[in-house]
Every structure is written in C-alpha cells, then in structure tokens.
Structure of Ferric uptake regulation protein:
Amino acid sequence: MPERALPYRPHNHDACVSHALADARAICRTQNARLTPIRERVLELIWQSHKPLGAYDILAMLGTEGHNAAPPTVYRALDFLLQYGLVHRIASLNAFIGCTHAGEQHRGTFLICRQCSNVLELATPEVSKAIEQAAAAESFRLDDITLEVAGICPRCQGDASNA
Amino acid sequence: MPERALPYRPHNHDACVSHALADARAICRTQNARLTPIRERVLELIWQSHKPLGAYDILAMLGTEGHNAAPPTVYRALDFLLQYGLVHRIASLNAFIGCTHAGEQHRGTFLICRQCSNVLELATPEVSKAIEQAAAAESFRLDDITLEVAGICPRCQGDASNA
DNA sequence: GCAAAATTTGAAACATTATAACATTTGCAG
DNA sequence: CTGCAAATGTTATAATGTTTCAAATTTTGC
Ligand SMILES: [Zn+2]
Ligand SMILES: [Zn+2]
Ligand SMILES: [Zn+2]
Ligand SMILES: [Zn+2]
C-alpha cells in the first residue's frame, strides 16, 4: 500500500506552507501579478491547515492580528488568488483551500472528510477524461468542472473514538 | 448523431412536468412520504423549466400566487424533495433543479449552460466509476459526489446571436 | 369517534455569505 | 514631480440559509 497522502498523516506542515508561498511568489512574478501583503497573508492563513476556510473565518483571523478588514478586502484577495490558481473554492462548503497543484494545468477533484474536514486535492486525468467524454457525447462545450467528493478520510475511518 | 437531449431542443415541456409529478406521487406513495400541497407546488414550480431555481425565486413565485410564505417554508419543502431524490441542489449556483432520474439509483452529473442556464442531468456510470476508483486509491470512503460542469450547451453554441 | 402523539406549517428573528458603490491610498510611467 | 491605473478602505446592502417557538394538521392507538 502506498504511503498516505499528506493531509492524512502527521507531517511537517510548515513545509507545506513555505512551499505554497514560494510557488505563489514564483507564479506571480512570471505573470507580472502583484502578490501584495494582504493577498499573501490571506494565502498564508488559508494554508494554516488542510481544512477549507470560510471568507469570514479569514476575516476574523485578520481581525485578531490587528488588521481590521471588511469583507470586500478578503473577497478581493480571494478573487485574486482564485484567478491565479493559488486557491480553490469549495462550492459545497462556501469555503476556500490552498491549491496543491498551483502552476500545473489541472482540474481538481476534492476529497472532503465529513468528520475532520481535511481536504485532499487530486489531479485525476482519468476522471477528467470521463467527464469530458460525457460532455462531448451531449455536444456540450465544457469550460469548468466542480467535483467535490464528501466522505470519510482514512484517518477518521481508523478512529474508533469519533471525537 | 443521436437526437439532442430534451433541454436542448423544443419539446412538450408540459409532459416533463406531468411525468415528474406522477413519478413523485408514486415514489412518495411507496415510501409512505407525504407529498403535501406545498411540497408538490414547490416541485411543480421547480419543474417549470430546465433551469435551476433559487430558493428565493420559489419564494417569490409562491408570493405572486397569494401564498405568503417565509423562507423556512421553502427550505423545508426543498429538504423534503432532496431527501426523496425528487430534486437536486446545484452547489455552484445555490439553486435547485428537478431530478430526471427520480427513483433510479444514480449519481447525477450536471451540465450547466453559462448562457441559457439550462441544465442537463446525466447518469454516467463510467464517470462515477472513475471517481470511486480515485477515492478508493486514497482509502477515502466515498459518501456523496457533487459534479457540476459549466460550459455552453449545443443550442447556445449554434446561436450566432448571443442574445 | 377521540385523545394523545407526531408531523407539518406559520411566523419572526437572526446568521452567514457575498456584492455594490464610492472614497482614498499606493505604485509606477513618463 | 505629475498623472494614471491598480489596490485598498469604508459603508451599506443584497442574497442565501437557519433557529426558535407557536399553531395547525395528520396519524395512531384505543
Ligand atoms: Zn500540510
Ligand atoms: Zn488545484
Ligand atoms: Zn422539458
Ligand atoms: Zn437526479
């Protein structure tokens, strides 16, 4: 059995964060996009864990660190991060999560644990292919896919104690 | 080339509606569920077209016909219809659409036209299979799939005039 | 039939998520 | 500098969804 994916095992999460930030800086540099302090801070907050964060959660976190922001501040930062593929929006949760494939051309599949909330993003070409074929069979021109899978992650399946 | 799916061609939509209502009555009868007047009316309103309807759209429609309902009335009816698989929620639109496979065991794939808003629901076993395999590969226990495809439907592709 | 229990509906308030509109500041080019 | 565009601040408001408790209706056991 292959090693479990990062969200499902203990790991040095600081490395996740710094990797994500480094990627973001690189991507913005090559695209001449401005990763301003607010935008970077929002991205960093989103990456505090592998659980998706609501816009108002982010707002509250900014609040506790003295930056008294209003909703548009956060939504604008999120729009920017979405635009450059640095975060994804989870429609079924109205929440946002850091993209683990930033820069790569991909369509994300999100495995969302109902118990611990951790989200694993998969890049699944076979799934995308199947969806593209299904759309093509109806002569539908596909622009975008929202694919969110709810269930129980391997770690929570193991837990007898449903804390 | 096979005939286009219903939402993409002129058709007798009254037949869609009466079919859906008949199915709903049958399903509720066999499940000992009460398809009360409000619930049936909400289902009928949702089926007025193949475009998804927001909860507050439904609320407004009920309002114009004299039934002055409050939000919980609509949401409760929708919860009931969702529970018995008579409608689906489109997470990416915060809207609801009648299920075209009510009673059948299925996981819906929704093709959503960005231009005309019409939605086609597909039952795509190959896609479901691929998703189930991807989840299984991560030892993730799959409970539910949200699969929504945004794009342009064949009819709108044909339109030169983007009305 | 009839009373108790369960389900459904009504109504008001509230919570959460997201956007509109306009003023101000900041970064940058000429 | 100066002027323009992009980004941020600020206030208000829109859109979506839930909680709570009371009243009405339907079902069930007798
Ligand atoms: Zn991590
Ligand atoms: Zn991604
Ligand atoms: Zn129809
Ligand atoms: Zn369906």
